[in-house]
Each structure stands twice: as C-alpha cells, then as structure tokens.
Design brief:
The complex is a heterotetramer. Chain A is mainly α. Chain A has a single domain, classed as ABC transporter involved in vitamin B12 uptake, BtuC. Chain A contains twelve helices and two strands. In chain A, helix 1 crosses helix 10 and helix 2 crosses helix 9. The termini of chain A are far apart. Chain B is of the alpha/beta class. Helix content of chain B is 40%, strand content 24%. Chain B contains nine helices and ten strands. In chain B, the strands form two sheets. Chain B has a six-stranded mixed β-sheet, with helices on both faces. A four-stranded antiparallel β-sheet of chain B has the order 2-1-4-5, with helices on one face. The radius of gyration of chain B is 18 Å and the shape is globular. Chain C has a domain of 214 residues. The mean pLDDT of chain C is 91. Helices cover 78% and strands 3% of the residues of chain C. Chain D has 16 helices and 15 strands. In chain D, the strands form three sheets. A seven-stranded mixed β-sheet of chain D has the order 7-6-8-9-10-14-15. Chain D is globular, with a radius of gyration of 22 Å. Chain D starts with 5 loop residues before the first helix and ends in a 10-residue tail after the last helix. Classes of the chains: A mainly alpha, B alpha/beta, C mainly alpha, D alpha/beta. Chains in contact: A-B, A-C, A-D, B-C, C-D. Chain B: One of its GO terms (molecular function) is ATP binding. Chain B: Pfam families: ABC_tran. Chain B: Keywords: ATP-binding, Nucleotide-binding, Transport. Chain B: It comes from Muricoccus nepalensis.
C-alpha cells in the first residue's frame, strides 16, 4: 500500500483536482434537482432541459456580447444572465401551468409530465440552436491556466475549472445552507420538505413555496449548464445524460439534502477521475456503483432521514 | 391462572422520556385488560413493543410462555397477537369488503395467485365478519370514503379477521360518535367474547373502561401505577386526580374522550 | 365492475381481431404491431409494479436480457419455441436476484436502483466489445419456428402470432394475478404497507413476486423484439428505453390489463405518423400527446374506454 | 417544394393503412414501368448527438434532390425523398424501413450513419429485395462477413479510413515511440482502435501504448483524460472521436497545452475544423473519412467541387463536412446505376433486380474523384490525410502536406478480411505512401 502510494500518490493528487472540478458542476445541477424533489416531491426530468437551455443561452448571450464589443469580463456576466433568464422564464411557466395541475396526482403522473416536457424541450432546442455543437470558450481563455508541479514537470490546469467552478459550487453550497437555515423563507422550505401536511396545516402557503423552489431549482440547473458551456460543447442529448447523473445523485444523497448532494457529487467526480487514471473502463459505471453501494449501507441515502412509517 | 401475554421489566426511553421504566404486566387468557393513563405516558408504546414495531431497550415480552422480545411484527402476528390502530390503517383504494378479505387472505395464505381474492369462501367469511361489526352496509364502499367511526370498526374487524389469541387495541372508541360508542363497545365485546379472544386496550373513556374491562392498569410515567378491577382502580383518589381528572371533563364538554 | 371485466375480454378479442386485420392488410404494420404487442407485454410488467406504487426506470434491462439471450443462444438453439422460454428463464433468474435486492426499496430509491442496474448492464454490453460487438449489436441468425424453417412474410407472421399469443397469455395471467390476494396486496403496498406487516404478510415478498413476473414478461418481450428485428443492440437497455415503457404504461392507463396494449399500439403508431410528418420533431409530438393524456384523461387510454363503457351501461 | 410535402405523405400513409397490398416479395419482379417519381428513403440521425452528422447529410440530400430535379431528375424521373430518424433505435428503424419499402413503395433506400443500423438494414434489404446504398456507416464487417445482392456501399469503410492516417503518421513522423488513444466508447471507437493497433503492431512493432481511454459517448468533460495524457506525455495521441465529443476534447487539450506535448492524429477532425477554429494548432494530423475537403488539392472536377461547396455554404451557412460528400457520392452512384441499368435494359426503366445488377463494377463521380464499386459491393474511395496549418484566408486551420491514398493500397482485396489482410502487411506499405499533393495553382 505504502509503495503504491509512493508511485501513484502524485497521480492520485492530479485525479483529485480533476474530480473536484467535475464534482463542482455535478453539484450545481444536482442540488437544484434535489431541492425541487425535496419540496415538491416531483422528480423533474425537465431539469436536464433547463441545464441544456441554460448552456445554449449562455453561449448565445456570450457570443452576442463578444460580437457587440463588450469587454471580455462581461462573458462572466453572460453566464449568470443566461441562468437567470432561463430559470426565471421557464420555471414559473412550467410550475404554474403544468405541475400545479398534477400535484394531487400519483407521483408517476407528475414524473411523466416532466418527461413529456423534456421531450418537447429537447426538440425545441434543436429548432432554436440547431444540431451542430455550440460552445463559448471566452471565460476559460480569460482565466488562463495554473501550473501544477508533477514529477519534475508541470501539468497545466484551467483556472476556470479548478478554481472558479469549485469556488462557485462552495458559494452555492454555503449560500444555500445559510438561506435554508437562517432565513424565514429558507426555514419554510425546510419545513415543507420535512412534513408537507404539517407545514400547510401551520398556514404555510405551499403554492408559493413550490413556485419559488421550482424557479430556484430551474435557475440552478441553468447555471450549471451555463457554467459548463465554456468547457464543453453542447449537442442534442446533452440534457439527457445530465439528468440521469443528477437522478443518481439525488437518490444517493437523500431527499432534499444539500450537503448530501455535495458529498455525492464529490464522490462521483473524484471516483470518475480516479477511475480514468487507474481503471478507465470503470469510469462510466462509477456513479451507479457508488449509488448501489451507498443505498446498500444507507437505504435512505447518505444524509436521508429514515422516514418513520407512521402508524 | 398463567399469563398469556407477559411483560417483565420492560424498558424503553425516547431521548430522556421514559415510556416504559421497568414494566411488569401479565395478561391472563380470556380477560379484557384496559390500560389507562395520561397522554404520553407510554400506553401505545407498550402495544408497539408487544407487536414488534418498537424494540425494547430492556426486559422481556413473553407470549404463551415463549419469548417474543425483538421479533418482527410479521412473526408476532403469526403467533397470534393482532392489533388495531388509533389511526385506522386501512387499504384506502380497496373496498371495506376487500380490506376484510385481505386480512382473511393474510391469515389463510395469500400465495394463491390464480384464484381471486373475492373467492366465495373468503367473500362469505368477510361479509359474515362485517355483519357482526354492523359494517355490511359499507361493504362496497372504498375505505377512503368512510367516516371515522366506520373506519375504526373496519380497522378492528381486520385485526379480528386474523383470528388472534390476543388483540391489542389502541383507543378503539376514539373517533366514534358518542351516541354510538356504547353500541360499538357492546358489539366489540360480543364478537371478542364469542371468539374467545383476549383483549388489551388503551382507552381514555372511563365509561367504556367500566363497562368493558375485567381489569384496569394505570400507566403513568412509564410505570404501572395501579392494577385491579375497574371499580377498585377508578375509585382510587390518586388515579382520579391524575388520570380521570384529565379525561372526565373532556367527555363532559365534548362528548368524546380526549384523543391522544 | 363485473360487467366491465366481462367487457374487457370482449374488447381484448375485438382488439386482437383488429390487429390481425391491420397486420393482414398492411405488411409494414405487421412488423410495427409485432413490436407494439411485445412492448405491451413488457409494459404489463410495469403495470404490476405501478399497482404497488413503484416505478421502475430500469426494466429495459430485462427486455435487453431477453433479446440478447435470443441473439446469443440462437446459433446453438435455432428454435423459437425453445428460445422464448430460455429468454424468460434468463430474465426471470436475473429478476429474482435483482428483485431480492431492490424489493427492499421504495419510490425514488426503487426507481433509481433499477435505472442504475440497467445502465450498468448497458455499459457491460458496450464494454464486452469482443463478445457483444458493442453498439454495432448482434444479428440474430435464422431460426425455425416449431421446427419449420420459415422465410420472409411467413416468418414475420409466425413472430407476429407469437407476440399476439404472448399478449393474450400474459394479459390473462396478469388479470388473474391482479385479482388474486397477492395482486390485491400489491395495491395495499401502495396505500398502507405497514398494515400488511401487522397482518403477517411480507410486503417485500409480495413486491418480489410482481417484480419477477414483470422481469419474465419483459424478457419475453425482448425475445420477440429480437426475433422480429433480427438485430439487437445495447440501446435496448438504455434508460430511455425504460422510460419509454413507463411512458406507454401511463399513456395506456394503469387501470386494466388492456391499457399497456392500447398504449403500446398508440405509441408506435403516433411515432410512425409523427416521424412521417416531421421526421426530426417526433419527440415533440409524442411529448405533447402524453401531456394531453395526463392533463385531460388521467386514466390513460384505457380510462377513456372504460368511462365510455360505464356511461353506456348507465344510460 | 418538390422534395416532400407532409400533407400528401400523411395522406399516403392513411391510404396504405387498410388497403390490401401485394406481398413484399413480389415487388422485385414487378414489371418496371417508368415511374412518375423516383422515391428514395434515407435513414439518418435527426435526433441525439449523431445528428451533428445526420442533419448535414439530410441538408445535402435536400439540396442535391432539388438540383437533380431542376435538371429533370434521374433518367427523366423527378426524385422525392423520405427521411427516417435513426435516433430512436433499431426497432423503430426496421419498422420505418419496412414502411417505406412496403407502403411508400420507395425505389431505393440510402441507409444509415450508424454501423449498427447498417448491420440491421442490409439483411432487410435482401429480404425485401430493395436496392440499398450504405451511404455513411463505416463498419468493414458488412461486406467482409456477408454477401449481398441488393446492398452496396458508395464510400470507403473503417479499414482504409484507419490505414491512411496510420501510414501517414508512419511516413511523416516515423520516430514516435509511445501512443495513447482516446476514443468514444462505442463500436466505432473500439473498432477503429482495433484496426489501428493491429496494423501498428505489424508496421511498427514496439510502440508503447501508454493509455487506452474510452470515455463515455457524448461525454462533456475530458479533464481527467487530458490530465492523464499530460502526465504520460505520449508522443502521439490518437482519437477517432467526432462531433461535440471531439470539439470538447480539442478545446480542453488546447487550453491545457497538450498539443504542445504530443502529436495528435484525428482521423475525423475535418468535420470539426470550422467549429474549433484556431484552437487546433498547426502540425497535427487530420482526416475526413474519405477523399473530400472543400480545399481539396487535386479534385477531379474542380468546378464541380467548387459549385457543391458554394451551394452548400450559401444554403446552410457552413462548409460541407464529410457526411455531405458521402451523400453526394450516394446520389452520384444512384444516378450512374440508373443510367447503366437503363442502358443495359435497352433504354427501358430497370426493375429492382436490374438496378441491383448495375452496381457491381459501377463507376461514378464524387465531387473530387472517380470511384468504383467492387464486385463485393464495397466502393473504392481514396483517403485524404493532411497536417493542420494556418492560412489567413480561413478562420480555422486548413490541411497542408495532403496525401491522397489510392484505395487499393489501404484496404484488403475482395474476399479477404481486414485483420487477416493487415497481418500480411510489410514495411513496404509505408514506403509506398504517395508524396503530398502540391495544390494546383
């Protein structure tokens, strides 16, 4: 073991860096989904569409800003703007006109409503943005690289990926934790997550909480998409692969748990990059293996509270 | 007489609250034992422990001489201890008749995948059972369409359908309209006596206790504070102050025993 | 209620006759309907789990297992009458092992564990490239049907008949199962699982029985799909294929065993017509159809039929 | 618009449902009267990540159909196109294939981008006795493992597409000692690596393969892979990826200066050049799955290529990429086959069998070369490989030191399987690599 570390310790360190960067993105998307699931109890498949549309929107706005000659730093504003625009338009529309009509229905119907929506939005993206890969590299180029020493050499990393993304993810985590625990609106959300009946019985307007949470979740998904636009190319189907991964995170993390989502994202991100370094063929199944392993040990998810079966 | 169901030094605490603090209680075969006591004293906890829903932190539970401490609810019910619930636990998408038939099926074996649940024999037994509880008019109604009193009776009927030797009932008359309460109790008593079931029930209504119980146990702060015949126990000034004093006024004003 | 159950059989026979007629009059429909019937059988399994309130997002695993079982065994056992039960056994065995694990879980955990396992299987199919040919898939060699080496349209007819036979068989089986105590206990899992425990019934075992049955059904469906398309690829196990099964279940309606078949036929035909009209936006059309059904006909297509029948009876 | 009208197609579909049609088998023998229109079914990706190729392919088909119809059609018969999406999977594809043949009565099918789709469609073509041109899929297995009377391929296959870049590398960068591969995790990614590895082991034994990475198809982040490659410092990085995957891989490699450490071999990068632009630095080896590029150094008919490129750019605001050339090849082959079969039939319109009979030995023009279909149904298509270079006329890298490989030198003869043939190769193969073409003018 010690010998192995001597040989591979540095490699492991590099894998950790990559893992943290990719975990940051996974977290950004999954935490929104988990929040929405915790409060509305709707597993929102269209979350993947929000991610994709947020990404496309960021690329469009960013390229537009560059075209009209705005300074380079404006590209960061483009990312944020894209997320807010996407989430604040799509979120309330969908919650108000679709989800609200099926809250009383069985969960499979709610889920299928979002699935149908996902199929529709998927084709809409193709109509609006076409099928050719779209990307927007501005912010990455702007931030440049940081050199990490390795074996008498250096490995350049994108500052955007290893510094900005983790910082944004940490700020989001911290901000969310503060919001949920220290503010009234946040406590209301937590109350609804823990016990919807009791919360509504106490006079909480569940409708408003749902609307706010859903919109907030949509903004987070779109932000995830916008943040990935500078490093990845957006193609049709990118939303689909995002949503499966986010589902896995939610199930592993536990209902509505933001710290759970963070830890799960970290495990998946690092697990995958370690797999790429030492056992590449395992990379694809890492999220699923982690989920199965966690649920074997903790059937309610990492941070899930075992639901007392009330009698 | 030997005890059919017996607790020895049973202990369970939630956080700092002691629901059972060394309980010794023996239920004799054939008797109706009422458990009374202030809210939160641990009465329901006793039922939950005896049926395997909660695991005790100390002590033993014996049924028919064999230890059942820590067994699963399924195993305990198969040995002959059934229970009913303070909040009725019905299958809300099924009719009352189907609920009863499911209980009968659970007793006789549900693994007959090619014969319908409502096969003639079970259907007849279900209807007979419902008839004895006066539930026949509601047989075809979905369980989620019933009023509270009917749900309560159906809940008990399902437990009775299992043909237990001991039936543990958690507030069998809460939620039943005051005007019907005594009739319900009569029905219940008749059904249980005729099938020779031993009954333990948690109850807040002292009229019901007086009428129904052979013995009364007073549960207070996780201990059995008093045990004896209804007349003796209910006359105890200590009991009157601590337990009945809480329950009586509620009944006088609302016409109902105070719910949990 | 009884009347509706009898009407159900009548409608099933009418539907079968209509399908045969359509397959007879229009050769290309024969294939589409074969696949639709097969998917209907798989969806029937989904419906059993839906009765217990559980949604599996991984049943494509069993469809793919059945299909690959046929593809791998056909060179050695080139007989449909043997391949079909073999596929069912393979799916049933895997279903039992997986079921023992997932039947402990409910709701999102149940759904996602199923999804995870099907995705792991998908990856295995892709990774074991030298055995499975990866995404290129495997061609199913020519097989005999009841000893007859068939070709062209007579082979297609045989597979169609097999699909129709399976649909009827499993339709009746599922009907009997759902009416039985175990089947009724499934719905009890959804509404009040703990009570089952206090009645001495293991909810886990009840769910397991439905799970194994659903795996067998999906396996048979996969076998028929393999025999009909004569080419199997890992895409059969992808999560979207599982999603499609749930989609069809909801579209058809979970209220009766005819729902899956109504749903599957509608799904396939809408997709064909949508694809013929706007080849690159069929997803949007399917999505819109599903939305409309959920918003305006919550019982699905079977719900609409049943309501019509009920009204006529009442009138 | 002469191409498709949704309304009439829906009508035709409705008419087909319920009308009693002849059994499919008869269509091949049906008397061949000259039809009023020539119906062509085309399967291509219209959804999912592979629509990156599928949609340009369809665009090219629509453009070509219009051009052909403006000139009076094929043999005087206007053509009409029917598109099928490969995205939903094999069962949908097979159903649509049957519908087009049996209900829409298409005369010819152009099948598939995905090799899996082609493998499913070719036997179907035989069963339905319908001429099917494999217009884009790559797998060499089809004509090496089976023989077909109705299926033909109007472009090269994976073997020459991998042999050409390997030989180019061996000729122009002969002293590399280590190599890493980063291919998409699906059949093409695995297949292309298997071919490359087998040939490399024969032609340059002893190359150390330091990493075999197969990231998920459709992956959006290659950071871990790039890190691994930066740490390993292989002399050569091979990637047969394409589409969004390749764009992202190039982008992340460029940002992290991996291009400075290793020479990249990207056999499909032609399709990404315009999008990745200057991110892809000079000095790396790229190919285009065939003999096509808008700056082709020596096209057989420069005017034809220019016209094709200009028309496509005008219409779709992008340079044509290899699927569009492949589509043009399929149309050209079809046109030539109809001409040949009609001539052989005494000037009368050919039946399905007669049309099929025209393909073996058929010669036809691509925008850049004259191609021939061998007797096994496989076309002989040259392969163009070049090295990236900067050119101020373009906002993206162009190819320099371009080599056009004659097809016979980079693929097995009829009847021999690729891996068997590869084992017979000698170092001679490298010395026979042609010199780079000097662009005319």
């Amino acid at each position: 073991m010690g010998e192995w570390f001597e040989q591979n310790g540095a490699l492991l360190g590099l894998a950790l860096l990559d893992g943290i960067a990719s975990a940051a993105l996974i977290f950004m998307v999954a935490v929104g989904l988990n929040l929405v699931f915790g409060v509305l109890r709707v597993l929102n498949v269209a979350h993947g569409s929000f991610f994709a549309i947020g990404g496309y929107m960021a690329a469009s706005i960013g390229l537009l800003m560059t075209a009209v000659g705005l300074p380079p730093w404006a590209s960061f504003a483009a990312l944020l703007l894209a997320a807010v625009v996407t989430g604040a338009i799509l979120g309330p529309l969908i919650e108000r006109f679709l989800l609200r009509r099926v809250y009383a229905e069985e969960s499979v119907l709610q889920l299928l409503v979002t699935f149908a929506l996902f199929m529709i939005l998927e084709d809409l993206q193709k109509i609006v943005w076409g099928v050719q890969p779209v990307s927007f590299g501005g912010p990455v180029a702007l931030m440049g690289t940081v050199d990490v020493p390795f074996a008498g050499d250096v490995i350049p990393y994108n500052a955007y990926q290893v510094i900005l993304l983790p910082v944004v993810a940490l700020l989001t985590l911290g901000g969310l934790a503060w919001f949920l625990r220290r503010t009234l609106a946040g406590r209301v959300i937590v109350a609804v997550t823990l016990d919807r009946e009791a919360a509504t019985a106490m006079g909480i307007d569940a409708g408003r909480v749902f609307l706010l949470t859903f919109t907030f979740g949509a903004v987070l998904a779109a932000l995830g998409g916008a943040l990935s636009a500078p490093t990845a190319s957006l193609v049709p189907g990118v939303g689909a692969s995002t949503i499966v991964l986010s589902f896995a995170v939610v199930a592993t993390a536990g209902l509505g748990q933001i710290e759970g989502a963070a830890l799960t994202a970290l495990m998946i991100g690092i697990g995958r990059s370690v797999a790429v370094t030492f056992e590449p063929e395992l990379e694809v199944v890492v999220p699923y293996l982690i989920m199965v392993a966690v649920l074997l040990l903790r059937p309610q998810g990492l941070f899930g509270v075992p639901e007392t079966r009330r009698i | 007489m030997s005890a059919l169901l017996e607790a020895r030094g049973l202990r369970l605490a939630f956080g700092g609250v002691k629901a059972a603090d060394g309980i010794d209680l023996a239920v004799t075969a054939g008797e109706f034992l009422a458990i009374i006591g202030p809210n939160g004293a641990g009465k329901t906890t006793f039922i939950n422990m005896a049926t395997g829903y909660l695991r005790s932190q100390g002590g033993q539970i014996l049924f028919d001489g064999a230890e059942i401490t820590g067994r699963s609810p399924r195993e305990i019910v198969r040995r002959g201890i059934a229970r009913s619930f303070q909040l009725p636990q019905l299958f809300s998408e099924h009719t009352v008749e189907e609920n009863a038939a499911l209980a009968i099926a659970a007793r006789d074996g549900i693994w007959s995948p090619f014969r319908p649940l409502l096969r003639p024999a079970w259907r007849e037994e279900a209807r007979d059972l419902l008839d004895r509880f006066g539930l026949l008019p509601a047989a075809a109604l979905r369980a989620d369409a019933l009023n509270e009193g009917t749900r309560k009776l159906a809940d008990i009927a399902m437990a009775v359908a299992l043909r237990p030797r001991v039936l543990l009932m958690d507030e069998p008359t809460s939620g039943v309209a005051a005007s019907e309460k005594m009739a319900v109790v009569e029905t219940l008593a008749r059904v249980l006596r005729s099938s020779g079931v031993t009954a333990v029930f948690v109850e807040h209504d002292m009229d019901v206790v007086e009428r129904f119980a052979d013995r009364v146990a007073v549960w207070a702060q996780g201990r059995i504070a008093a045990l004896g015949s209804p007349a003796a126990v209910l006359a105890d000034p200590e009991v009157q102050r601590n337990v009945i004093g809480i329950a009586r006024p509620a009944r006088a004003t609302g016409g109902r025993a105070a719910d949990a | 209620m009884r009347g509706l159950r009898r009407a159900e059989i009548l409608i099933a026979l009418l539907l079968a006759a209509a399908i045969v007629l359509a397959a007879f009059s229009t050769p290309w429909l024969r294939f589409v309907l074969t696949v639709a019937l097969a998917k209907g059988v798989a969806v029937l399994g989904i419906l059993l789990l839906l009765r217990a309130g559980q949604v599996s997002f991984g049943h494509a695993l069993y469809v793919a297992l059945g299909a690959y079982a046929v593809a791998f065994l056909a060179p050695r056992v080139p007989e449909a009458a043997l391949l079909l039960p073999l596929a069912a056994v393979v799916a049933g065995l895997v279903g039992t092992v997986v079921g023992l694990f997932v039947s402990r879980y409910r709701e999102i955990f149940f759904g996602m564990l199923n999804l995870a396992l099907s995705m792991v299987f998908y990856s295995v199919l892709e990774k074991l490239y030298h055995i499975t040919r990866g995404t290129d898939g495997i061609r199913v060699p020519a097989i005999t049907v009841l000893g007859q080496p068939l070709e062209g349209s007579s082979y297609d007819w045989a597979v169609f008949a097999m699909a129709l036979g399976l649909a009827l068989l499993f339709g009746l089986l599922a009907r009997a199962y759902l009416a039985s105590p175990v089947g009724q206990a499934l719905a009890a899992i959804k509404t009040r699982e703990t009570r089952l425990d206090f009645m001495g019934v293991s909810p886990r075992r009840v769910l397991l029985s439905a799970y194994v049955l659903s795996a067998v059904m999906a396996g048979c469906a996969g076998a028929v799909i393999a025999m009909a398309t004569r080419h199997v690829t890992p895409l059969l196990a992808y999560w979207t294929a599982s999603g499609e099964l749930v989609f069809i279940a909801v579209l058809g309606g979970a209220g009766g065993v005819l729902g899956p078949f109504l749903g599957a036929a509608t799904f396939e035909l809408v997709r064909v017509y949508a694809a013929a009209t706007v080849a690159d936006a069929w997803g949007m059309i399917l999505g819109a159809v599903l939305l409309l059904v959920i918003l305006f006909a919550r019982g699905g297509l079977w719900g609409i039929v049943a309501a019509r029948l009920g009204r006529r009876r009442a009138a | 618009m002469p191409v498709t009208s949704p309304l009439t197609r829906r009508g035709a579909l409705a008419a087909g449902f319920g009308s009693v049609l002849l059994p499919a088998g008869l269509s091949a023998q049906a008397p061949a009267a000259k039809p009023s229109e020539l119906k062509i079914g085309i399967t291509t990706f219209l959804s999912g990540p592979a629509s990156v190729f599928g949609v340009p392919g369809r665009n090219a088909a629509e453009m070509l159909a219009e051009e052909i119809n403006r000139e009076g059609g094929i043999g005087g018969v206007p053509i009409r196109l029917f598109f099928v999406d490969e995205g939903p999977g094999i069962d949908h594809l097979v159903g649509e294939f049957r519908r087009l043949v049996q209900n829409e009565k298409v005369d010819v099918m152009l099948a598939s981008i995905s090799s899996g789709s082609c493998l499913a469609c070719t036997p179907l073509a035989e069963e339905l006795r319908k001429v099917t041109l494999l217009w884009d899929c790559g797998t060499q297995r089809i004509f090496e493992e089976g023989s077909y009377k109705y299926a033909f391929r109007s472009q090269a296959n994976s073997t020459p597409e991998m042999m050409a870049p390997l030989l180019y590398l061996l000729k122009h960068k002969p002293d590399f000692r280590s190599l890493a591969v980063v291919n998409q995790d699906y059949a093409w990614g695995r297949d292309s690596w298997e071919l490359w590895k087998a040939a490399m082991d024969v032609l340059k034994p002893g190359v150390r393969v330091v990493a075999e990475l197969f990231p998920r198809f459709g992956a959006t982040d290659f950071s871990a892979e790039v890190t691994r490659l930066l740490a390993l410092r292989p002399d050569v990085v091979l990637s047969t990826s394409w589409g969004g995957d390749l764009d992202t891989f190039i982008r992340q490699s460029a940002e992290r200066r991996l291009f400075e450490r290793s020479t990249f071999v990207l056999p499909l990068a032609e399709s990404s050049l315009e999008r990745v632009g200057r991110l892809l630095p000079p000095g790396h080896i790229v190919g285009s799955r065939g003999d096509h590029w808008h700056q082709h150094p020596r096209p057989a008919d420069p005017a034809a290529l220019q016209r094709f490129v200009a028309n496509y750019r005008r219409r779709f605001n992008a340079y044509p990429i290899y699927p569009t050339y492949h589509m043009a090849q399929a149309f050209s082959a079809l046109r030539a086959a109809y001409a040949k079969a009609t001539a052989a039939n005494g000037g009368n319109w050919p039946s399905d069998v007669q049309l099929a009979g025209a393909f073996p030995g058929l010669e036809f023009d691509s925008p850049t070369a004259r191609l021939r279909i061998r007797e096994d149904g496989q076309a002989l298509e040259p392969q163009l490989i070049g090295t990236t270079a900067q050119d101020d006329r373009f906002p993206f890298p162009i190819m320099d030191r371009m080599v056009v490989f004659p097809p016979e030198t980079i693929m097995p003869p009829v009847g021999q399987k690729s891996l068997d043939w590869i084992r017979t190769l000698t170092a001679d193969a490298v010395s026979r690599v042609p010199d780079p073409v000097r662009p005319a003018g």
